[in-house]
Amino acid sequence: MSLQRRTFIALALAAGAGLFPSTAAFADSALDGVMAKKSIAIAIPTDFPPYGFVGTDMAPQGLDVDMAKLIAARLGVAVELVPVSSANRIPYLQTHKADLVISTLGKNPEREKVIDFTAAYSPFFQAVFAPKTLSIKSAADLGGKSVGVTRGAIEDMELSKIAPPTADVKRFEDNNATVSAFVSGQVQVIATGASVAGNMMARNPQLGTEFKLLLKESPNYIGVAKGDDKLRLKINEIIAAARASGEIDRLCQKWLGRGAGDLPN
Amino acid sequence: MVQLDFAAVLVDWPLLLRGAAFTLGLTAVASVLGLALGVACARARTHGPAWLRAIAAAYVELIRNTPFIVQLFFIFFGLPSLGLRLSSEAASIIAMTLNLGAYAAEIVRAGIESTPRGQLEAARSLAMTEGQVFLKVVLPPSLGRVWPAMVSQIVIVMLGSAVCGQIAAQELSYYTNLIMSRNFRSFEANFVAAALYLAMAVLLRQLLTWAGPRWIFGRIAPAGR
């Protein structure tokens, strides 16, 4: 075997090892790694005002971003914000590219199979919105209409359950594409989170969009890697303290214009 | 180590199959239209009047120097504000056709410009019209010479159609992402999709290499004979 060939194989093995990190790292709590390197990687949305969006100064801001900063501050570490989309935020956590997901994440049984959730930190609901001229009184009225939704989001799951087979559900990659499709008239109806709809309605009053059907009340939780109880319990402590001190209420008032209300644990 | 579970993805095989068929359908329509557009632009750039050459050149440069996804988003999200509203399928086909057309124009032009002068002079001395010379003498052997490059470009356009899922065209990567967002099996879903794309690309290349000499430009005597 020539030297070049051996070098090549060694390099290939090294590259392979890099792609599949050792299992030992997964067994430990992400909290140990965070405290050791004095920095926590938190996945946040950048397409989801007012929870997470990019301001005119190009820096991420919003309720989720403030929550991420609050948690990093309580842990006494630096925060590394990782922008994610609705579709890829869970893979980021699964592949340990992020220690926490604070990305307007709702809890459902499918997700609970693959990741764990902390206590809730902010209120949220998903609904169906459409122009006033379109009559939608029940899920059956969605039949024959084109409905835009962001793939993989809670509203996608809920809509898929109630929409009649004749509804033309169009799934888009992220909230920007879904909103663009609705605003440009590519879909007649939009199923999305209240905050996205509120922002869209404020910017496009000419569309005459209104609330039609409630899909789900779904408070936001922080996602942690499956089985990482040490990190989850630590975050729960921080959330409980922030609720008690009124900090979470202040954040909700600042970004949502309403208090946190009753949040489940 | 992550536990792999391909069954969780393969159980949705009807969706994967429907997506693969849709990708092939998009590619088939866009290939035929894009090839025709490419030949027309190549003809315009080599034989057309100056203003037509300028238009064809501008189109080719515009398409070849902008990303496909931007072209696609412009057609799907941008044109409605000008009053032209297209379905995601129509927008995908138009974007793929325009994209292939620009690259095909340059590929075909290379073939046309490599036509030996003697053949042109011989055709003209037989009193063929310019149109006849182009269609019967110049174009078929030109296509034959550039066919391998053309086949590669068509395969590239087929693989590029993976981004059409972003505007909810229900092709293979759209269903892959849908399955992934349901069961979170991203490695397996992407692995299966990659295998399907690979198989489709190999088959498409074989098919076009076989079909070209038989159906599109005829058998050509090898050069130098």
3D architecture notes:
The complex is a heterodimer of chains A (265) and B (225). Chain A has 2 domains: 24-124 and 220-256, D-Maltodextrin-Binding Protein, domain 2 (3-Layer(aba) Sandwich); 125-217, Periplasmic binding protein-like II (D-Maltodextrin-Binding Protein, domain 2, 3-Layer(aba) Sandwich), CATH 3.40.190. Chain A is globular. Helix content of chain A is 41%, strand content 27%. Chain A contains 11 helices and 13 strands. A 5-stranded mixed sheet of chain A has the order 5-1-6-13-7. A 5-stranded mixed sheet of chain A has the order 10-9-11-8-12. A 3-stranded antiparallel sheet of chain A has the order 2-3-4, covered by helices on one side. By secondary structure, chain A is an alpha/beta fold. The N and C termini of chain A lie far apart (61 Å). With 225 residues, chain B is mostly helical. Chain B has a single domain (7-216), classed as MetI-like (MetI-like fold, Orthogonal Bundle). In chain B, α2 runs antiparallel to α8 (172-183). The longest helix of chain B is centred in the N-terminal third of the chain and has 35 residues, at 13-47. The radius of gyration of chain B is 21 Å and the shape is elongated. The mean pLDDT of chain B is 92. At the A-B interface, α5, α6, β10 and α8 of A face α8 of B.
